[in-house]
Amino acid sequence: MGFSLGDFNLSLAIRFLSMDMVENAKSGHPGMPMGMADVATVLYKYFLKFNPQAPDWADRDRFILSAGHGSALLYSLLYLTGYEDIDINQLKSFRKLGSKTAGHPEYHLAKGIETSTGPLGQGLANGVGMALAERMLNAEFGDELVNHKTYIIVSDGCLAEGISQEAISIAGHLRLKNLIILFDDNGITIDGPINLSTSDNHLKRFEASNWNVKQIDGHDYNQIRQALEVAQTSDKPMFIACKTKIGFGSPTKEGKSSAHGSPLGREEIVKIREKFNWQSPPFVIPKEILNEWRSIAARNLDEYNRWNKEFNNSNKKDKLKSYLSGEIPLSFKQGSESLKRKLCIEANTDEPSRKSSERIVELMAEHIENIRGGSADLTPSNNTKARNQNPITPGDYSGRYIHYGIREHAMAAMMNGIVLHGGFIPYGGTFLAFSDYCRPAIRLSALMALRVIYVMTHDSIGLGEDGPTHQPVEHLAALRAIPNLLVFRPCDVIETLECWDIALNQQGTPSVLALSRQNLPQLRKEYFKENHSALGAYIIKKEEKELKVTIFASGSEVSLALVVAEKLEEAGSGARVISVPCMDLFKMQDKEYQVSLTCNNSLKVAIEAGVEQGWERLIGAHGIFIGMESFGESGTASELFKYFGFDPENIFKKITPYLKK
Amino acid sequence: MGFSLGDFNLSLAIRFLSMDMVENAKSGHPGMPMGMADVATVLYKYFLKFNPQAPDWADRDRFILSAGHGSALLYSLLYLTGYEDIDINQLKSFRKLGSKTAGHPEYHLAKGIETSTGPLGQGLANGVGMALAERMLNAEFGDELVNHKTYIIVSDGCLAEGISQEAISIAGHLRLKNLIILFDDNGITIDGPINLSTSDNHLKRFEASNWNVKQIDGHDYNQIRQALEVAQTSDKPMFIACKTKIGFGSPTKEGKSSAHGSPLGREEIVKIREKFNWQSPPFVIPKEILNEWRSIAARNLDEYNRWNKEFNNSNKKDKLKSYLSGEIPLSFKQGSESLKRKLCIEANTDEPSRKSSERIVELMAEHIENIRGGSADLTPSNNTKARNQNPITPGDYSGRYIHYGIREHAMAAMMNGIVLHGGFIPYGGTFLAFSDYCRPAIRLSALMALRVIYVMTHDSIGLGEDGPTHQPVEHLAALRAIPNLLVFRPCDVIETLECWDIALNQQGTPSVLALSRQNLPQLRKEYFKENHSALGAYIIKKEEKELKVTIFASGSEVSLALVVAEKLEEAGSGARVISVPCMDLFKMQDKEYQVSLTCNNSLKVAIEAGVEQGWERLIGAHGIFIGMESFGESGTASELFKYFGFDPENIFKKITPYLKK
Pairing relation of β-strands B574-579 and B538-541? Predict the structure, then answer.
């Protein structure tokens, strides 16, 4: 086979730990760690730049297990190389409630886990985001402070998912030379051999997207080492297809689906122990092998010390620190505040909220050096690009705007990767209807608690003639259903400012800004320093007569609610209007405040050009909801609003019968 | 250029109609129709098998405009070739409310529109589904009755979206030789030239997935014709990259982004008319050109007549009719009914609902010849494959099970295509958490009103150790938010039978069956012929003492609700339990029935291992909801249910304080 006994023993340590973990947990995936143990050993022993004592070292290489079901591989590596978070007891608690060693790697549980993986293809696209972040940071701080690789282990499943193509395509286009994919080419999926469903030539596929490629025997240490050696100086991202045997070493399950997702069984493990003459009991690694694993990290100590010296002596130290802290500079806050004041004084800024958002984009581009904008090829529609933002181009990463192409899913997952990498605050645009295209990655922004800002314009039937496929109807509800995600739908320029401000200051929560295509009149004309939108919902118009009706509304429907309220007042019924720019934030307010808005004897009405789901919380089961019950239609915005019942006459008529009762 | 003046004039007719439509509508996309007019002309004139007088002809070629924004191209073609639905007035009503000529092609609006397109990449994947349906139907009925092509026009955007790779990959694998993609390779996207974001070699990419490929000048009639000629006898699916100029013929906008998505302007159009010496006014096609267009369809009359004769004389006529009707055979209904009776008598079938679902799968495979199952590589987990279902393999389409591979998005969009094509009833499985991966296509199942059945197992934290990335929490709510989609979550084997029965009988509505990984006790033991689940919600346990509490629950939480109710009864409070297998169906019941379940003075409680959103409709704003507020965790199912508060003690304790009040 052409390997040193030393390396083989190191990889056996991974194999036996992984087998033992799965066996002990009585569930899990042993086949992949056993198949990729050799590749992982060579990567860690000879190439990976890491320091278990300083797991947050900014210039470390990133290692991502995109095939997250093989988590035992990652946990074994973290234990063997000496990461504090993952001790032997953690390996014994694999997949148990409360452990750091969850079924799939969870970012927030332990240092050394660079991203949460499991939903296939996400880790790959996260890695592309990290590799881009590395290049962008390098462009600002130079080779001495930023120059590291991103290694990703991917499975057949990762490469089958569509997101992989989006990520591969943009990585090749942007020539991310510090990105290396190691493909666990084991020819096996859950249903059986890969040829049940696939006959792609992945080498050719990656070449078609401008990658360097190489195919190797994933159990041949020399080939692995040579390939990784070549990758160190590649001028493009590099794809290494490693032919492996799933469940390598298992006498009856090697190379079979049965090695994938279940414990091998005690008997089988006994046989493997015999085969490799592995004498030590479960979870015990022979001392000399463990020592060799532990000594590997020392290889990087010189580099780690050099980097620290460089960092401490650098005149860019403070800037880099500030980039990594992710804090919003005071100058932006001041700029934003004075813009708010100015707009309130002028009190005549009627414009689409996507246009209002562009004002903040300009302000951010001016004051927040480490903000990176982008759009999935809807830049002129999303209004996401500031005048002074130059695009990132292949080989030149000093720009501050990313043309993600028509790749919503990769955009979202790359933004996750950019935040995970550290150094930048990303925002990216598409149409709200296409939030569906990137929903799996939005969910991961929320699950990993990452400040990713989604700028989603054309937020209702107000999109107009493009019709039902492009008109979001259920998307606000569907996004609000995701835990730890803030969904904003501002009603005018002032709320748009406020919502952006909140989103930027949420370091542990992603945000969606749902913005209008069509014009919105400025409703907030009195200046308050306090951010009213931060309450999630607030009274935007008090009743003049005795309170009879409370109308809740968001976004473009708030101005409509105000017209209806006026009609009601004219007809003798006091009407209050509550603007709801963020339902999620309202739910987080103290009970007293919530009750003060929702509990009174007035008739409750809600207006939103979307489905009802979620509004019952505010209006109760018997309130009146004015919204959408079907998909939209193709027509002008104003026709559509009327057609679907969003006109003051219609709403007034729906309300009045209840007032007579 | 090498074209006959005749063909050029035909294509000018498309160009001028498209320009006039967009100009008249004051919005829309002229560039693409102008760029692809030559390709479309050659396709329709020399190759496409169609009959405007019989637009539903089962053996017609399918033509899909995946780049749906270029809808003016399709509408022009339908008008020019004489489809009744699209007359000149429809072209003049382009993008207007109530017209058949919506901003993007909408399937339900006019014959000749084979699928709703616009969300990029979907049409491509629909087409792969249609091409597979064609081969599957051919396997059953032979070349004489079924032998047609599927042509798809795709854009750069279609090919950038991840779904395209999934679809291309499986189409190449399955060797769908009757599938032809025509790529509008115009080098332009909304943000600008394609090289802002992409540098893929698409020819190589398609070759890597086993397609035949050809690159041509999309304005050279000979090259177009030769390429399509080659495609007629291709042994693989064929990709033809047509180099075109967006906005072909426009003196100042040809080849530019500005031709993409806005009217060209009157002045520009005047110049184009002069350039091509086009004398007739807007919307008027010179008689001889219109006549030539109208005569094109006659080319297919012989074939159409031959087919009809063949069909009428065929001993398979009734079988084909039955396939196309999509009706469920009586024998299945009887089998299903007697299974229900048997299980009720035995009254001891405790099993996961995915296992219960497998019983129906077996029954369907036995009785419904034209059902086609599949899974996105989770066959053994989704329990979607019957024993007698052989897989479809490359070149042999007589099997009845589709290994979709790890391609949820393509699976869903292909199932849409299979239904659109006609002849089959498709169902396909994945984990409920990965409904996000195919959500854009699920939305289109609903928008197009297609009977696609999604079998989504592992429907809650009950999935266990695989952890939060795999545990659906918000997915039930998010799916329920989609209009015209039935989301089922049966509580036991009997409800599973009932829900499947409803799903199969909904010809105009897709369904999601959310099924458990873990065991569910049989709760329904008394046999009723009526399908209780069809009510959406119904009383599964009446109160014994005076009614104090009404508990709503779905799926695995119904048995828990019953235990809680028993405890309440023991403590002196009458408790009613309402099983809610389908919230959407409950909303459709008459008001009286709805009120009978939700309006009484008892305390309202709902239990579901998901987010609250949607349940407020049943329990009001002040009911008690027992559910999830965060993402899940990795651990055993039983530990997790306890950890997140789904145990009778905890729920009982939450309820009792309210009863004392």
Answer: antiparallel
What is the per-residue DSSP string for A467-533?
-TTTS-SSHHHHHHTSTT-EEE--SSHHHHHHHHHHHHT-TT--EEEEE-SSEE-----S--SS-GG
B112: left (phi over 0), alpha (psi -120 to 50) or beta: left
pLDDT digits (tens, 9 = 90+) for B273-289: 999 999 999 999 999 99
Residue A303 annotated as catalytic: no
- Do B97 and A439 make contact, defined as CB atoms within 8 angstroms? no
- Shortest CA distance to A621 belongs to which of B620, B622, B596? B620
Provide the ipTM.
0.98
Q: Give average pLDDT by consecutive 10-residue segment, chain B, 661 residues.
A: 70 98 96 98 98 98 98 98 98 98 98 98 98 98 98 98 98 98 96 95 98 98 98 98 97 94 95 95 96 95 98 98 97 97 97 98 98 98 98 98 98 98 98 98 98 98 98 98 98 98 97 98 97 98 97 98 98 97 98 94 97 94 94 98 98 92 53
Q: How many angstroms separate the CA atoms of B529 and B175, rounded?
A: 46
Distance (Å, whole) CA A372 – CA A424: 7
Rounded CA-CA distance B30/B104 in Å is 13
Instruction: Nearest chain B residue to A156 by CA: give it.
Output: B406
- For A46-61, give the DSSP string: II----TTSTT-TTSP
- Identify the CATH number of the domain defined by range B330-520: 3.40.50.970
Mean pLDDT across the stretch A265-271?
96
Question: Could you say which residues from 247 to 276 on chain A have a Cβ atom under 8 Å away from some Cβ of chain B?
Answer: none
Residues A532 and A597 sit within 8 Å (Cβ to Cβ): no
CB atoms within 10 A of CB A4: 10
Cα-based distances in Å from B363 to B333, B398, B427? 10, 19, 14
Which helix (H) or strand (E) element contains residue B318?
A: helix B317-325
**Architecture field, domain A534-660:** 3-Layer(aba) Sandwich (3.40)
pLDDT of residue A308: 98
pLDDT digits (tens, 9 = 90+) for B218-227: 999 999 999 9
> In this model, does residue A394 exceed pLDDT 90?
yes
Q: Which chain B residue has the Cα nearest residue A374?
A: B191
Assigned token pair, B281 = 């006014």
- Is any Cβ of chain B less than 8 angstroms from the Cβ of A638? no
Using alpha carbons, select from A462, A407, A460 the residue that is nearest to residue B189: A407
Encoded tokens for A100: 């750091």
Say what the pLDDT of residue A2 is. 37
Asked whether the beta carbons of B535 and B585 are under 8 A apart, the reply is yes
DSSP A393: B
3-state secondary structure of B355: helix
Burial of B312 (0-12, 13-18, 19+ CB in 10 A): exposed
**∠ CA B17-B19-B23, rounded to 5°:** 115
Check CB contact under 8 Å for B483 and A27.
no
pLDDT, residue B2, reads 37
Answer whether A5-306 and A534-660 agree in fold. Answer: yes
pLDDT at B3: 44
CB A588 within 8 A of CB A536: yes
Place of tokens 């969300």: B119
Which CATH class for the B5-306 domain?
Answer: alpha beta
Q: Domain segments of chain A: what residues?
A: 5-306, 330-520, 534-660
Rg from Cα positions in chain A: 28
Residue A582: CB atoms within 10 Å? 27
pTM across the whole model: 0.98
Q: Is the pLDDT of residue A5 over 70?
A: no
Contact B162 A160 (CB under 8 A): no
Can you spell out the DSSP letters for B46-106? II----TTSTT-TTSPEEEESSGGGHHHHHHHHHHHT-TT--HHHHHTTT-TT-SS-SS--
